[in-house]
Design brief:
TIM Barrel, two-stranded antiparallel ribbon, globular, binds iron/sulfur cluster
């Protein structure tokens, strides 16, 4: 079994994939003002992930114990309740939770929240299109993010084709961990790929993300060979990938691609810990910190010293 065999082999029914957030007026996910669609499901398990709700491809119930008033409404509403508790409780899940969200709908204190809702292509694109005035005024558009949107090539293809028919600019934010065919097909439909390089050492990459980086780097080389439009994104995480050896290896790899791609350095922010707890997941056993301004400047200067085009943040300054 290869690394790529770990990707979902079948997509959800045509009723859609689970979207857990639609963020409007984003200025960090590609050119202009953008609407970013966050899709659930990811084959990587990065130990700094600040979107733990993106990992599982299905809707999930998040619980904020501090807001629970013990009213019992969730027990009444839960079709899998055993009489004194719903199937998904604050500290446990008995395996019977069908992720229907009935408990969240009746919870008066917003202690329970259903994360993720199945969205179909047509209604999702119609919703995105409402933001056209912002796109037209700024040169923006829609960004499909996650999770990993390339987990759902049929759904994503439908979205990208529908956007193209409507003249909406599209970006796909990806780890690049997908089959070569999927990466190529999607690159031909999207206006730009926002493509992560997390670490150049395959063993380190595997230890901290759960997957080998070789398919990711191979796919990036293929995209460059085919003149695809790509913005490389480098999540800067002190103690993980800010070492000179890694920066020089990345600069050498990117500088050696047939197409000169810009690198966007994204400073890491530790915001996901409480989200892990609310989902009943154990927070990762790591303690990464945000880079200081000096850290950021040093990394940018090091990469630029190799003659590369380097920016900070998710778009041109
Ligand atoms: S999501 Fe549905 S099955 Fe799960 S605890 Fe809530 S009501 Fe029960
Ligand atoms: S419905 Fe909400 S507030 Fe009431 S017991 Fe359930 S979780 Fe607590």
């Amino acid at each position: 079994m290869t690394e790529l065999d770990r990707l979902p082999q079948t997509e959800p029914a045509p009723s859609g994939v689970a979207v857990f957030n639609i963020q409007r007026c984003s200025i960090h996910d590609g050119p202009g003002i953008r609407t970013t669609v966050f899709i659930k499901g990811c084959p990587l398990r990065c130990d700094w992930c600040h979107n733990p709700e993106s990992l599982d491809g299905s809707p999930e119930v998040a619980i904020n114990k501090r807001q629970c008033t013990s009213c019992g409404a969730c027990i009444e509403a839960c079709p899998e309740s055993n009489g004194d508790r719903p199937a998904r409780g604050p500290d446990w899940d008995d395996g019977n939770c069908r992720r229907c969200g009935a408990c969240a709908e009746v919870c008066p204190g917003e202690a329970r929240e259903l994360i993720g809702e199945a969205r179909a292509v047509a209604e999702l694109v119609a919703e995105i299109e409402r933001d056209r005035p912002f796109f037209d005024a700024s040169g923006g558009g829609v960004t499909f993010s996650g999770g990993e949107p390339l987990c759902y090539p049929t759904f994503l293809t439908g979205c990208l084709e529908a956007c193209r028919e409507r003249g909406l600019h599209t970006a796909v934010d990806t780890s690049g961990f997908a089959s070569k065919k999927v990466v190529r097909d999607i690159s031909r439909l999207a206006d730009v790929l926002l493509y992560d390089i997390k670490h150049m050492d395959s063993e380190v990459h595997k230890k901290h993300t759960g997957v080998d980086n070789q398919p990711i780097l191979d796919n990036l080389r293929t995209l460059s060979d085919e003149n695809a439009t790509v913005w490389i994104r480098f999540p800067l995480i002190p103690g993980f990938n800010d070492g000179d050896d890694n920066l020089d290896a990345m600069a050498s790899f990117v500088g050696g691609l047939p197409n000169g791609y810009p690198i966007f350095v994204l400073p890491y922010h530790p915001t996901g810990i409480d989200k892990h707890r609310r989902l009943g997941k154990r927070p990762p056993d790591v303690d990464y910190r945000s880079p200081s301004d000096d850290d950021l400047v040093a990394v940018v200067e090091r990469l630029r010293s190799h003659g590369l085009e380097v920016h900070t943040g998710g778009a041109y300054e």
